[in-house]
Amino acid sequence: MKKTVLNKYQSNLITPLTDHSTQFKGLSGISDNLVKKRMKVLIKIFKNTNEAYKSIMEVDKTYDDQISKSN
Asked: Measured between alpha carbons, how far is 1 from 19 in angstroms, rounded to an integer?
């Protein structure tokens, strides 16, 4: 279980952020528009991460309501 959680953390958070961060090397030679574009992608990653965590926390873990409705 612990290995599975660590693998998901690595593949769903660390790897995308690391890959994205490489785009910011040498920013002094690029246009403002390109920096803004890359920042929008980073913000989207963070928003998706927050929404994913929120949806995980809001899950009805028992599913009692769904089971009782189907009976």
From this structure: 26
What is the distance between the alpha carbons of residues 38 and 57, in angstroms, rounded to a whole number? Answer: 29
Read off the tokens for 22.
């490489």
- At residue 46, the 3 state secondary structure works out as helix
Which pair of tokens denotes residue 36? Answer: 């803004």
Give 49's contacts (C-beta < 8 A, 6+ positions apart): 12, 13
CA 60 to chain centre: 21
Angstrom distance (rounded) from CA 25 to CA 7: 26
Gyration radius of the chain's alpha carbons? 19
Alpha helices in the chain (DSSP H): 2-9, 15-21, 32-58, 64-70
Reported as a single tens digit per residue, the pLDDT across 2-51 is 778 778 888 888 888 888 877 777 666 778 888 888 888 888 888 777 76
